[in-house]
Amino acid sequence: MQVPPGLLVENPNLVCRLQRSLYGLKQASRQWFTRLSSFLISHDIHQSPSDHSLFLRFTGTITTVILVYVDDIILTGNSIDEIQSITTLLDQTFKIKDLDNLKFLSWT
Predict the structure, then answer these.
(1) Is residue 1 part of a domain?
(2) HEC per residue, the chain
(3) What is the pTM (predicted TM-score) of this model?
(4) What's the pLDDT at 1?
(5) pLDDT tens, 45-101?
(6) From the centroid of its chain, how far is CA 38?
(7) Is residue 101 one of the residues assigned to a domain?
(8) Which residues make Cβ contacts (< 8 Å) with residue 33, sequence separation at least 6?
(9) Residue 15 lies in a domain
(10) How many domains does the chain have?
(11) Residue 83: which domain range?
């Protein structure tokens, strides 16, 4: 690794320690998933023990399911109000883009 052009350093043998992951690096998706799963768990949405990309919330008769694949999230359930609430929470924290209703899902 080399120091970026224009950056003056006293000792060129020092190592830079990143405070957060950078998009495009090998660990970036792992850091993103860690942050997202911590956020969901803190909002009483439980991670499935059989599939770590599946998150579930059961509140009385309301069931909400969140499936995470890389940087895509599928959110479904039997209460539109609960889905809107979780979407708002995610948007406030992560600035998500809502792509509207899922039109096609392929399991290959």
Answers:
(1) no
(2) CCCCCCCCCCCCCCCCCCCCCCCCCCCHHHHHHHHHHHHHHHCCCEECCCCCCEEEEEECCEEEEEEEECCEEEEEECCHHHHHHHHHHHHHHHCCCCCCCCCCCCCC
(3) 0.72
(4) 61
(5) 999 999 999 999 999 999 999 999 877 899 999 999 999 999 999 999 988 888 888
(6) 9
(7) no
(8) 68
(9) no
(10) 1
(11) 28-94
Helix 28-42 to helix 80-94 angle (10° resolution) is: 130
What is the mean pLDDT of the segment spanning 8-18? 74
Q: What angle do CA 53, 56, 60 make, to 5 degrees?
A: 180
pLDDT at 25 over 80: no
39: phi then psi, degrees, rounded to nearest 5? -65, -50
| In contact, 46 and 37? CB cutoff 8 Å | no
Contact present, 68 and 36 (Cβ < 8 Å):
yes
Q: What is the pLDDT of residue 102?
A: 84
Would 33 be classed as within a structural domain?
Answer: yes
